[in-house]
Description:
- The structure holds two protein chains of two kinds.
- Chain A folds into two domains: about 35-240, CATH 3.30.830.10; about 260-460, CATH 3.30.830.10.
- In chain A, about 45% of the residues lie in helices and about 20% in strands.
- Chain A has 17 helices and twelve strands.
- Chain A has helices at about 1-25, 75-85, 95-100, 125-140, 145-160, 165-180, 190-195, 200-210, 225-235, 290-300, 305-315, 345-360, 365-380, 390-400, 405-415, 420-430, 445-450; strands at about 35, 45-50, 55-60, 105-110, 115-125, 215-220, 260-265, 275-280, 320-330, 335-340, 435-440, 455-460.
- In chain A, the strands form two sheets. In chain A, strands 1-2-6-3-5-4 form a six-stranded mixed β-sheet, with helices on both faces.
- In chain A, strand 1 and strand 2 (about 45-50) form a beta hairpin.
- The radius of gyration of chain A is 24 Å and the shape is globular.
- In chain B, strand 9 (about 310-320) and strand 10 (about 325-335) form a beta hairpin.
- Chain B has two domains: about 25-230, Cytochrome Bc1 Complex, Chain A, domain 1 (2-Layer Sandwich); about 255-435, 2-Layer Sandwich (Cytochrome Bc1 Complex, Chain A, domain 1).
- Residues about 1-20 of chain B have low confidence and may be disordered.
- Helix content of chain B is about 45%, strand content about 20%.
- By secondary structure, chain B is of the alpha+beta class.
Amino acid sequence: MKxxxxxxxxxxVVVALLASSxxxxxxxxxxxxxxxxxxxxxxxxxxxxxxxPLVTFQMSLRGAGTAAEPAEVEGVAGMTAALLTKGTAxxxxxxxxxAVDVMGALLMFSSAEEYASASAQSLAEHFPKLMExxxxxxxxxxxxxxxxxxxxxxxxxxxxxxxxxxxxAVRAYFRKAYFGxxxxxxxxxxxxxxxxxxxxxxxxxxxxxxxxxxxxxxxVVGGIDKAKLVPLLEATIGRWSPGGAAPTAPAVPxxxxxxxxxxVLIDKPDATQAYxxxxxxxxxxxxxxxxxxxxxxxxxxxxFTSWLSTELRIKRGWTYGANSGLQSWGTGGLFTASSYTKNxxxxxxLKLTFELLKKARSAGFAPEEVESARNYIxxxxxxxxxxxxxxAATYVRLAFYGLxxxxxxxYLAKVQSATPAEAKDVAVKLIPDADFxxxxxxxxxxxxxxxxxxxTWTVKKITDPDF
Amino acid sequence: MLKKLVFSVLAVLxxxxxxxxxxxxxxxxxxxxxxxxxILIYEDHAIPNxxxxxxxxxxxxxERTGITGVSHFIEHMMFNGSGKFGPGEFDRRMEFAGGSNNxxxxxxxxxxxxxxxxxxxxxxxxxxxxxxxxxxxxPKVLESxxxxxxxxRRMSVENNNDAILGENVRATAIMAHPxxxxxxxxxxxxxxxxxxxxxxxxxxxYAPNNAVLILVxxxxxxxxxxxxxxxxxxxPAGPPPPPVTTVEPPQQGPKQVLVRKEAQAPSFTIVFHAxxxxxxxxxPLSILESALFNGESSRLYKRLVRNEQLxxxxxxxxxxxxxxxxxxxxxxxxxxxxxxxxEAAVDDELAxxxxxxxTEKEFQKALNEVRTAFYGxxxxxxxxxxxxxxxxxxxxxxxxxxxxxxxxxxxxxxxVKDAARRxxxxxxxxxxxxxxxxxxx
Lengths: 467, 441
């Protein structure tokens, strides 16, 4: 009796307070940054965040990612990014690492599909020095043969070690199986075959061809005044002017659409759990579908009480984690679901997963579920732009895809107004029925018969070279 | 250009000291209820959200043979129903109100971390208070959750070679103290915990006098404290939990562990017994940790990865624990690498530290890392709550958080060498190797 009363009161509190919190949330927005264009053409978005003596710099370089690689040198974009910090005209690799480390700072270059990224963060007092080093990396990288050889060896060895970790390996195998020969099928790490053929000259050529300030967009957020920042940027990254016209990033072909079920099994004879990833087409960055799609994904596999997590983990204890997710690029996107379980339950787990996929398409989601997902996305939004690095990364992403700095306001409004009918519509659009790619890493001798019920599998050994 | 840079450095420094004043010890509201619940509240209106953290003084350190892993299991069961909220209600209601959560268990503590819109404060407190006193442990739900934890163990240990080796090395180096086992517990214990034992453990350690509640974010202190009193005030204090009395005896000679397993690459670990986090040697050794491991200029990275190319990576450091635990050196060898050469290189680097200590520059680097990490955590309400709670559990009071930069700066360089000499001895060392069998070499 008491329990019932208590619950009733709490529910009332939730409802009453939610109304006021929605008003408060509407007021919480990503603040629009100030635009600075340096003399070399680099656009930098700036926001002062005065609470703490930290400053962050983030930058994305269009057309310097894996999709821009010549097909025969898979991994050269990642290799180029990694070698940028391995020595410049002024500083050798060891001296450069020490100069960054002694400040307790972070300086990193990396590559994604559509771009290469730079990320630098330090105490405000060290930021000028850090930007000086970051600029050096872009202006006069050495790309020394010796550093190339070391990095290549480390990557080759890293690929082998990665295959000891089935949770990480399944992602690489999935990328290959899903994208195949499409540029997005390239691994940023390269493969055993591509690394064996790659030379330092490939790296120098890739850098020369793809890195240009006019193709970059950057953001600085933190405890630094604009009056100090502009001359600092001009004196550091502003000196990066390789000359010539900005290269045109190669157009990314449309993403592949699976036709039928593509089933791939990677045999790892010592695995006591089987790991799987299932994928199908998603939507591109900025697609108006993103609001209701995030509501749908939240309910299907995007949070702890999602369908996948409830059925595979909470109710049955088959796994520690079961998730789904949405990834978007300029040209398209990906919907994935993934989990893992001990060898003897993989068949049942996949069967139930297919039932859930089917249910999402056919029955959709109840109104109270949709309301819960809306509240969840809106309630969890403010912490996503709480740090200087996450704010800067958000500015860079919105600018890179040309979405506008009010894009998230519109997105959140669409989340807030999402209806069960919309959630079902996106489920029908995004959740696969007959056409998908499914990759499993596990012990074939214990799981293959369970998997055979799903169709015909292409089987590879984990010890085979490449993916 | 140089001159301009220098000026801007000075200007930024001047403003930095003002900025840092935003989060001060004086602004933390401290309270203690009659039942012993300690409360820390910090108002922060930067975002319309709240971090509500509850940290308990219980971890695998408090377990015994047969119930290893039970601290972590209770952490899982805390989401599976209490007196007023049935199984799954905590998460369902929290997510409906726009909140999310996580929880973690360590050697010494268990933490529950809630992040939610400010409006959900009262219902969240009602649920948190309820699960502090009346967990259901529904037998059916318990069995299902047992499977989840077994899967977690298979993922985090049995399908992870470094973790398999780590568990073997820990259990070899530490003989008597409960740090002998890993937080996840032994698989046979996971499979045979009894409900009565779990319940007794929960009743012993989940009491207001064994917890600290930390509230950071968009709250009003007075109102928040009233709510805490309303929901937690009626929970009775428990008897003080029994102290952990086992003391690890000194190691009397070097130990070796060899694991043979199908693998592409070997794994390699060296550990030394190390002091508790409140020992005067702890901070000097954590400064040494920076010199040895942090960044590509660190001593062991340079030696093993860059110069001798024996490894893909290296990491490790001091366990920050209430009782003395281990200083760990984890090496990820290249496939086919000579592990004896790796060991010799590590020994050589440690001998250099024992002979000459570290440089002034390495010391400055460590201090800059401490400052960067300190401010990095203070960027978020979650980071602030986590830091306050951490110092409360490990150092006996959140106040220590506000002197951490001064405490590190006060260390004298020779203390690093002296501390290294005390722990890096042959008799104090355990070496672990995982050698690939089958697979490709």
